[in-house]
């Protein structure tokens, strides 16, 4: 059983059945799953992407300046963080939003001390605005926060149930790994996260567990030690 986790959620997953924005059903399902494990005494830190609203990198291909595009992406993660915090509050879960860029009163400015105090008080703590810097993804932001808060593991909730030899949505013969080393991920060129994030986790010995978050109840199964995803380790 993990005592403290960093949960990485993708912005795209929040779209649910929609093509854009936030699906209330998916948002509420996530909130229920998160409250379930918080009720068991797990300290939960969360990073959410912003791809359901805006992606800096794709914005750059459409003529946006890359730095401004990334800043727009950071703001998209803040919108998602506020939505999730609202969904958690509505079901009675204590929650706090910390931002990597100063924007009181929307959220409090991030510091490790504030984050740890918040986690230890039983509040689900959402880290928004990525790292606060352009050219870094929310994957890197979640790796950084996981290491900073000294999480036991980084849980990467996706729409697939782990890491495969190839994209299981495109290749019916793709085989799933139950566990895999960072070196093997590099050698096989498997892009579970961007290289910066993967390297940070490798160098700081932060295990990553990739699982399907969109099936309700799976987050609790992971916490209970059920082998439903893929563990990445040194």
Features:
alpha/beta, 38% helix, Carbamate kinase, 8 helices, globular, single chain, 234 residues
What does this entry show, briefly?
This protein is of the alpha/beta class.
Task: Give a structural overview.
The chain has 234 residues and is α/β, with parallel strands linked by helices. The protein has one domain: Acetylglutamate kinase-like (Carbamate kinase, 3-Layer(aba) Sandwich). 38% of the residues lie in helices and 18% in strands. It contains eight helices and nine strands. It has a nine-stranded mixed beta sheet with strand order 4-3-5-2-1-6-8-9-7, sandwiched between helices. Helix 1 crosses helix 3 and helix 5 packs parallel to helix 7. It starts with a strand and ends with a strand. The model has no long low-confidence stretch (mean pLDDT 95).
Helices, strands, pairings?
Blueprint: E1 4-9, H1 24-39, E2 43-48, H2 56-61, H3 66-90, E3 95-99, E4 108-109, H4 112-120, E5 124-128, H5 138-148, E6 153-158, E7 179-181, H6 182-188, H7 195-203, E8 208-212, H8 218-223, E9 230-233
Major β-sheet annotation: 9 strands, mixed
CATH superfamily: Acetylglutamate kinase-like
What is the CATH C level class, in words?
Answer: Alpha Beta
Structural class designation: alpha/beta
Compute the CA-based radius of gyration: 17 Å
Element order: H for helix, E for strand = EHEHHEEHEHEEHHEHE
If classified by CATH, what would the architecture be?
3-Layer(aba) Sandwich
CATH topology: Carbamate kinase
Q: How many distinct beta strands? A: 9
Report strand %: 15-25%
Question: What is the end-to-end distance?
Answer: 20 Å
Helix content: 25-40%
Net shape: globular
Number of distinct helices? 8
């Amino acid at each position: 059983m993990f005592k403290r986790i960093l949960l990485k959620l993708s912005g795209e997953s929040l779209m649910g059945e929609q093509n854009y924005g936030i699906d209330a059903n998916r948002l509420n399902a996530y909130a229920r799953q998160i409250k379930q494990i918080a009720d068991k005494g797990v300290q939960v830190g969360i990073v959410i992407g912003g791809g359901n609203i805006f992606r800096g990198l794709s914005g750059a291909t459409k003529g946006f300046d890359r730095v401004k595009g990334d800043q727009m992406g950071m703001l998209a993660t803040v919108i998602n963080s506020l939505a999730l915090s609202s969904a958690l509050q509505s079901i009675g879960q204590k929650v706090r939003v910390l931002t990597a860029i100063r924007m009181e009163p929307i959220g409090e400015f991030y510091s490790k001390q504030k984050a740890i105090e918040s986690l230890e008080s039983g509040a689900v703590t959402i880290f928004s605005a990525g790292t606060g810097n352009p050219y870094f993804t929310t994957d890197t932001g979640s790796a950084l926060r996981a290491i900073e808060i000294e999480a036991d593991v980084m849980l990467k909730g996706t729409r697939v149930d782990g890491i495969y030899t190839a994209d299981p949505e495109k290749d019916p013969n793709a085989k799933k790994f139950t566990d895999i080393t960072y070196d093997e991920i590099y050698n096989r060129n498997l892009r579970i996260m961007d290289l910066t994030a993967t390297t940070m986790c490798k160098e700081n010995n932060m295990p990553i567990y990739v699982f399907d978050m969109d099936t309700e109840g799976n987050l609790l199964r992971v916490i209970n030690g059920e082998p439903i995803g893929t563990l990445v380790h040194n």
